[in-house]
Amino acid sequence: MSQPNTPEDQEPRLAPKPLDRPPVDAAQAAVFGRPRGVDGAFDKLYTPNGRGSDTIIAKPPAPESLAEAFGRPPGAEDVQLQRPADDNGNGSGKPGEAPLWSKTADPWRDPGAPAVLGSPALAADDAAKGDDERPRGALLSLPEVLFGRRVKPTALGLLGVVCLLIGAVGGFVGWWVASTGNSLTGSATIAEAEAGKERAPGSIADIAQRVSPAVISIEVKSGESGSVGSGVMIDAGGYAVTNNHVISLATTDPQATITAVFTDGTRTEAKVVGTDPKTDLAVIKVAVANPVVIQVGKSSDLEVGDSVIAVGSPLGLQNTVTAGIVSALHRPITAQGENGEPPVTYDAIQTDAPINRGNSGGALVDSTGALIGINSSIRTDSGESGQGGSIGIGFAIPADDAMRIAKVLISSGQVKHADIGINAASVSADTSEGAQVLNVADGGPAAKAGIAEGDVITKVGDRLVRNAAELTVAVRAHNVGDVVPVQLVRQGRPLVVDVTLGSD
Predict the structure, then answer these.
(1) pTM of structure
(2) What pLDDT, in 10s, does the model give residues 484-499?
(3) pLDDT digits (tens, 9 = 90+) for 464-474
(4) Rounded to a whole number, what is the distance in angstroms from the first to the last CA of the chain?
(5) Which of 119, 210, 361, 431 could make an S-S bridge to 243, C-beta 3.0–4.6 Å?
(6) Residue 318: which CATH number?
(7) Which of 212, 276, 280, 400 is catalytic?
(8) Considering the domain boundaries, does residue 486 fall inside one?
(9) Which domain holds residue 222?
């Protein structure tokens, strides 16, 4: 039976469109074309040796170091990781059941990853061996450790340092526990506090400690009578300066004895070297080798208000120290002489440092501990010098004058003072204030200069004269033979005369 004609059969077919294959650029073909000798797809192995596509090319052998690190140990070639097999060889525990490894698989890992060790790494007979059969290191004795060179010296040294550190830490902890035991245990024991001691250089305590050994107590005895005073060591030969009234008994009584007492309790005999009753100074010598000598300062450098310290034996109380200030300078002091001797007159340092009977002849020192005066007298409310107790007005002979006179007494045993050759009395009037001349010694310095009775002397050299005592100290401030201008008032008229001072 014939088929009806289809539209295709009725119409003529068109011929296939010819393929246009333009030439391929050689450079692009080299970059994007198949490798030489490959005609098919790239999923087939290329075997240039012609053995076929199933042939696997072996990798080069692994490096020896990697094979030793990651390879099987010797004797473990038969050990491999594998799945446990069952009797059927399918890896299940029982026939017909699922493989055993699937029951113990970790669901969080690859299900095909479980594996077991085929055989133990250690044989059963080796594991059964005890530790006693294993080789042990030799036990080292102390001599072997120290002298057998079995241990490095550095290790021994480090061990010793560690031991010392442990001992030090333990000792510190023990000391801390012992020192803080009361606070740790809550004890109610009252701790004893040490008293604060402030003795800075230049303090009164420091000065007293340095000065006191150079100040001595002087005891003068004659039968039942006696006196007590002080003295100051001024020379390493044993010479000490004091007041004349302290040792005056020894100068008039041959039976009197003088004893010097030092701060350490040493007692020794002393002898009079020389005296100056007019200035109340004397020098004695004690039989002591290398005594402590005081440092001598300059009284001319003092100012009112400077700190001073008095050291002596007031009322027989040895090694007494009192402190005060300089109350006044150039204070002329006159006192009655001892045993009919001439009056005492000196240009004093006034101080409020407490001074009492027995301080006489002691040291008045400045804030450096240097001698600036010899304590001599006090003023009391009764007005009598040397009587009663201190009221804060004491007087000391300036060290400049005392040392000058002491040197002369040591060398010659006596001293001479400059003299003007008059007797004078204090006067105060509307027209003048000074020392009025009562009489003039015939042929004396004043008579030769033309000074007459009734003249009022107001100035000697650079020193003002306001009373008779000040006239005496002003004249004695010069040397014998000095020519000094003297200013005076005669019948209301001022005059100036030059006087050549003589000797007393």
Answers:
(1) 0.61
(2) 999 999 988 999 999 9
(3) 999 999 999 99
(4) 197
(5) 361
(6) 2.40.10.120
(7) 280
(8) yes
(9) 202-414
